[in-house]
Amino acid sequence: MKNGNFLINGVEYNTGKVLIIAELGTSHGADPVKADELIEAAAESGADCIKFQIVYAREILHPNTGEIMLTGSKTPLFDRFRKLELDPSFYADMKEKVEKKGLLFLCTPFGLQSARELKEMKPKCIKIASPELNYTELLREISGYNLPTLISTGVSKLRDIEEALEILSFPRSSMCLLHCVTAYPAPEKDYNLRVLGSLSSVFGVPVGLSDHSLDPCLVPVLGITQGACIIEKHFCLSRNDPGLDDPIALPPPSFAEMVHAIRSAEKKEPLEILDNLCRDHGAERIEEILGDGVKRLAPSEKENYTRTNRSIHAMRDIAKGEILEKPMFASLRTEKNLRPGLPPSWEEQILGRTAARFIPAGEGIRLEDI
Fold this sequence. Notes:
Layout: E1 6-8, E2 11-13, E3 19-25, H1 32-44, E4 49-53, H2 57-60, E5 67-70, E6 73-76, H3 77-82, H4 88-100, E7 104-108, H5 112-120, E8 126-128, H6 136-143, E9 149-152, H7 158-167, E10 175-180, H8 195-203, E11 207-211, H9 218-225, E12 230-234, H10 252-266, H11 270-281, H12 283-290, E13 310-314, E14 329-333, H13 347-350
Parallel strand pairs: 3-4, 3-12, 4-7, 8-9, 9-10, 10-11, 11-12
Antiparallel strand pairs: 1-2, 5-6, 13-14
C-alpha cells in the first residue's frame, strides 16, 4: 500500500478506502437541537465520521488574549470560548447519536480535563489539533490511552512533528498525520500536497488531509493522488451561520459534492485523476498546489507560528523574585495581542526557578524572565 494503513476498530483505511470526516467543531453553538441537525445533515451528505471539539476556555487561552470580530462587533475571544463550554453528557449524547447512524464519532480535546472526559466516553479514536501538536503534557496524557490517533500538522515544522511522535509512543499504524494549512481560509496554492508522501516516508505513518480551502473538491481529490487515506473538512448548515469556522466550512450540498468526487477518485488511478484535474484547472495551477514536497510553514500560516500553537504563559501577575510553581503558569495558545513564551517542553525546567523580573498576567514567560 502506498502510504501504509490506518486501523480504527478493525477497519483499515488506505489509498483504496478514504475516511471522510465532517468536522462540526463548535458549529452547534452549544445548542443540542442544532447539533442534531448537523449530525443528520452530515450523515445524509455522505460523511463516514462526525467530529466535535470539547472546549474549556481556560485550557486554550488566557482571558487577556484579546478580541475578534464577530457579526460586525468585537468580542473577547476567551468569552466566546466560555460560551461553548458544555457538560460532558452533551458529547456522550452526541456520540450515541452518531454511532446509532453507523458512523464514527471523533472528538478533539484541548487539555487534560477534556482529554480525560473524552476517555471516559470510550471513543474508538482521538484527534489532536494542529495548535496542540507541541503541547507536551497533553501528548503524554493521550499517549497513555493507546487509541488510534489523528494528528494535524498545520503551523508546524518537521522537528515539531518528530518530537510529537516521540511522545506518542504507540504503534505507527495507530497514528495518522493530517497535513494541514492553519489559515482560514487556506489558499489552495499553499498546500504543497507532495508533502503527504514526504511525511509518510520520513515517519513511516499513514497520512491524510485536514483541508481549510474553500473549493469543495480540488484539494481533497488532489490529496488522494498523493496517498491521503483520510480527508477532513469543516461542515456547517450555512456559511452565514455564526459558528467560528462556519465561513470556511462546507454546507450540505458542497460536502456531498466533495464526497461524490472522493468516491469517484477512489476508483481511478492517480495519473488519470491528475490528467482530469489538469484539464479542468490547468496544469500550472495543479503543479502549484502539488508543490515540491518539502515540509515548511506555508506563507499563509507563517505569522501564526508560536502564536497559534502553545507556549508557556503567566496565569497571573508574577512579581520579581517569586518562585515559579503551577498553577502560576500554563501552556496556552498565544494568539494575537500577547507575546509568546517558551515551548511547553520547558515547563519542567522552569518549575522552581525564580522570576528575574515582573511578568504580567497572560504574557509568555521567556528565558530572560527567569
